[in-house]
Design goal:
The chain is α+β, with helices and mostly antiparallel strands and 163 residues long. It has one domain: Gcn5-related N-acetyltransferase (GNAT) (Aminopeptidase, 3-Layer(aba) Sandwich). It has 5 helices and 7 strands.
Amino acid sequence: MTGPWSVRRLGEEDWQLHRSVRLAMLLDTPGAYGSSFGREVGFTETTWRERTGQPVFLAEREDGLPLGTATLLRPEPGTDAEIVAMWVAAHARGTGVADALVIACRDRAVAEGAGVVRLHVMLDNPRAVACYSRLGFVLDGTCGDVPGCSRMVATTHGIAPGR
């Protein structure tokens, strides 16, 4: 913990919290994700519970206020790990929350034996590009699934969790 907050993995029982944070991020930065508030607001409880099957990390203050979230997606064992649905609330940006979420995802990927972690970033978000670069990610020249989006990758070989 680098402040009066911590990062934890959400479980299936946290589906309502996950739903609230996901919908807030879709309202806050709608162009940054491959989905929309209108689409996801109608998801069922079952869908939200299923979404916590992938590691969903939440940064939150000691009083429970959500500060940010990130999901480590690994569709099948042996595939590259990918950080998706990364978001930090406006009031928490610049406080180390983004770093802690990326490190939590990377540590999980290392623990699962992933050799590579990738993510997509909007190129018009220089703070995000700088954050990921600082944490060892490099742009690989691959375009993302929406205009202005590019992929960054980092290898995990030789990385000890927490570093």
